[in-house]
Backbone:
């Protein structure tokens, strides 16, 4: 992997020096530059190419949100990370569409390192040029044919029900990803972040959805993939059980409605990378599935071997390019490595991670059956002892489905 070029921006000299000291051990892997303001950062970027920018939010003059907006415009390929204190919440929400990742202060160097590696992995030499080209060019994802037809039928009714539209879209991986991309794009000029298909339908309005679907064909079918060991319906079934399970777990842990919904949508999308890889490279993906089933290795390990990259990385990369909300991106990116995001409490990410492992356990012979609970992540969140309760609740839900 080539050395990563990373630019750090913070107006407090003490903090900048602290960062510099703390990150010294990574000098062998990273080339780091440190500047103390937005203007200086843009000047630095004009004279030198960087892969990643890590910026403070609250700065005099140009704040972090404005800086990242400008960076996104001038250097769209860069990875954009926000380093923010707890008091910066409203500022952070301003840049949710332009930042790829958030880290809270004081920052843990290991966590920062993991995030940067995670975010950069695709810009490195790890990925085959062909894979990168394909991902960069994807503008739609295959939908489950029956759901697509169901949506078209619903839209042709006289009195279309917005809630029903949201439910149909919310049951499909490709449609969910695409509607969230649309509703969060600057094109529609919404000032808030929308992370559920139901909300997306409400915000866009039924007429807009009709035009998008029936006239512009945004969800139009691409050929559903079929490999020998994994089909689109298999993936759909897995994603939906994980979504329902994640919501159940989030509810059992007392997360609020918004976070329960985030767990559900995150569950629908968590394996979007599998959809991307399997539908674009069916033969190679069949070999991945074969390895998983015969060797009982994880999907990620097999993907790494054959693609040089995992479905979590590919999924997060495309969803990042599409500008999906950060919490959903984090779920896609970290659902097999939940410990990377340490918030010291229960989160939608942990709900999806646990549901993925629990549901996978019920699909022993499939490619989804080799996951393990991330004990460290669950312990840090204080929920390790809850795993059996969750398994029971998820199984109950599956029985009723
Ligand atoms: Fe996965
Ligand atoms: Fe999964």
Residues:
């Amino acid at each position: 992997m080539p050395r990563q070029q990373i630019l750090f921006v913070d107006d407090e000299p003490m903090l900048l020096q602290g960062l510099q000291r703390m990150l010294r051990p990574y000098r062998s892997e990273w080339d780091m530059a440190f500047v103390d303001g937005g203007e200086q950062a843009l000047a630095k970027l004009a004279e030198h190419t960087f892969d990643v920018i890590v910026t403070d939010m609250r700065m005099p003059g140009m704040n972090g949100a404005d800086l990242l907006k400008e960076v996104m415009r001038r250097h769209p390929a860069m990875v954009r990370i926000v380093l923010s204190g707890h008091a910066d919440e409203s500022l952070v929400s301003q840049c949710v569409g332009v930042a790829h990742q958030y880290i809270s202060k004081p920052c843990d160097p290991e966590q920062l390192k993991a995030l940067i590696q995670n975010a950069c992995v695709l810009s490195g030499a790890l990925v085959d040029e062909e894979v990168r080209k394909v991902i960069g060019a994807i503008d739609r994802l295959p939908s489950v044919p029956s759901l697509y037809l169901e949506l078209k039928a619903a839209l042709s009714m006289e009195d279309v029900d917005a809630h029903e539209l949201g439910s149909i879209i919310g049951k499909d991986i490709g449609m969910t990803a695409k509607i969230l991309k649309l509703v969060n794009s600057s094109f529609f000029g919404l000032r808030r972040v929308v992370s559920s298909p139901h909300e997306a339908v409400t915000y866009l309005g039924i007429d807009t959805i009709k035009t998008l679907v029936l006239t512009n064909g945004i969800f139009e079918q691409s050929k559903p993939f079929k490999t020998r060991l994994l089909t689109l319906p298999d993936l759909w079934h897995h994603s939906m059980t994980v979504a329902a399970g994640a919501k159940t777990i989030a509810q059992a842990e007392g997360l609020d409605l918004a976070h329960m919904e985030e767990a559900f949508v995150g569950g629908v999308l968590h394996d979007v990378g599998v959809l991307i890889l399997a539908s674009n490279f069916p033969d190679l993906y069949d070999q991945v599935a074969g390895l998983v089933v015969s060797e009982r290795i994880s999907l990620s390990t097999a993907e790494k071997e054959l693609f040089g990259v995992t479905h979590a990385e590919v999924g997060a990369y495309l969803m990042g390019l599409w500008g999906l909300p950060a919490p959903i991106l984090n779920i896609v990116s970290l659902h097999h490595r939940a410990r990377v995001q340490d918030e010291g409490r229960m989160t939608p990410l942990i709900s999806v991670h646990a549901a993925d492992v629990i549901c996978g356990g019920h699909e022993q012979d499939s490619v989804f059956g080799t996951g393990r609970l991330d004990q460290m992540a669950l312990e840090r969140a204080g929920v390790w002892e809850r795993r059996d309760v969750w398994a029971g609740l998820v199984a109950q839900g599956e029985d009723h489905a």
About this structure: The pocket of fe (ii) ion (ligand 2) is lined by residues 238, 242, 270-271, 356, 368 (CB under 6 Å). Residues 232-252 form the longest helix (21 residues). Residues 4-120 form a domain with the Rossmann fold fold (CATH 3.40.50.2300).
